[in-house]
Amino acid sequence: MTDQKQPPKDKSGVLSNIAGTYLDHIIDLLPCYISIQDLEHRLLFVNQSFKNDFGDGTGKLCHSVYNGSPNVCRACPVEKTLQDKRTHIGEKTVQLPDGKICQMLIQSAPILDANSEVEAVIEMGTNITRIKKSQKELTILGQSIALLSHGIKNILEGLQGGAYVVDEAFNEGDIQLARKGWSIVNKNIFDITDVVQNVLYSSKNRPLQYEMVSPGQLVQDSVQLFRAKAAAMNIQLEAQINAALPDVQLDAAGIRRMLHNLIWNALEACHNDKDKNHHMVNLNTDYFDGNHIMFEIADNGIGMDEATQRNMLEEFFSTKGAGGTGLGLAVVEKVVNKHGGRIEINSAPGIGTRFKIIFEIRH
Asked: Which of 141, 145, 152, 136 is nearest to 324 (CA)?
């Protein structure tokens, strides 16, 4: 006969004491967020760790508690589990009630009824903010110098090329050639300025300088700055502004940088789309609801697939190859997060992209 291993005997009674004392509270003692959600993502149960950081969200929609959004989060693991009855894992960015942004690792698993149908989903969330911060810092150390040097090198080569054309034009007395050369120089001056400003904003932990500003005026100023460039790229650039919007407390410099990066990103998306004859970028600022305003930037450019959407806010991620540094949208996310706002993105390849930036109204 083969020897069968027997479970160890609890001679001291420690295990029995722990079970008797803590079994009812073991889920509350776990250092992670545990919730059970119904088929509509409504929270049926949350553990004490969840309550400590998000409040007692029982009865509320998960995405409403996490982000104050009426929409299910992109690539939601719980939604995937509801669809295929399998376990899933993913990451999401959530906002705590105190305004702090939290990076979470989410795991979901189905709870099946007697007919093996999903009747609820259990979700476990682990706060990985510190890990992600360290990971990002290491990534920055490894990539920043190489990528930025490559991008700046390309711009400097463009400046040299434009300067050469201008010199030749002066030598030949050709004003038309001089204008052509200067347009090349001017474009690359804009590009190097944009790179430097994004590097500065990304690298410095600059405190927000709140002031009363007009959201509509910020949009108008940004559109005016890019109107000539959009016209040169044969792209229609328009803005719709709700004149009833009040002045609100925002960091004007940060919001301008955010709008400039989003507009330039939209213009480039249109410029890189060779399948349409007419391209347009529309900006809209309006109420999102009674307590929030929104900045919306929509284009009918090349659009993005799901993989690109998952990575596009990461620093140094770029689909432009040597033509981009991958800082533009990362700076957008940093501005939005520091304001306690959120970003909603809808995009499809060949159709275009819509960014919706939502901020709480502060007077």
From this structure: 152
Residue 19 has a CB neighbour count (10 Å cut-off) of 12
Strand ranges of the sheet holding 352-360, from the earlier edge strand across to the other edge: 235-241, 279-289, 292-299, 352-360, 342-348
Structure tokens at 19: 């079970």
Topology (CATH) of 129-204: Helix Hairpins (1.10.287)
The conformational region for residue 59 under phi > 0 = left, psi -120 to 50 = alpha, else beta, is: left
| Fold designation for 17-127 | Beta-Lactamase (3.30.450)
Q: What share of the chain in percent tops pLDDT 90? A: 39
Tell me which residue of 222, 225, 254 sits closest to 241, measured CA to CA.
222
Considering only CA atoms, which of 215, 198, 213 is closest in space to residue 283?
A: 215
- Which residue from 136, 95, 191, 106 is spatially nearest to 330, judged by alpha carbons? 136
CA distances from 277 to 237, 239, 265 (A): 15, 21, 19
How much is the pLDDT for 14? 54
Q: Which amino acid is at 265?
A: N
What is the rounded average pLDDT for all residues in the chain? Answer: 83
Sign of CA dihedral 145, 150, 152, 153: positive
Break the chain into its structural domains and give their ranges.
17-127, 129-204, 208-363
Decide if 17-127 and 208-363 have a common fold: no
Map residue 208 onto helix, strand or coil: coil
Which of 260, 259, 303 lies closest to 285 in space, CA to CA?
259
For position 322, what pLDDT does the model report?
A: 44
Residue 111 has pLDDT above 90, yes or no: yes
pLDDT at 282 over 90: yes
Q: Which CATH number fits domain 208-363: 3.30.565.10, 3.40.50.300, 3.30.365.10, 3.40.50.720?
A: 3.30.565.10
pLDDT at position 7 over 70: no
Closest to 329 measured CA to CA, from 216, 209, 194: 194
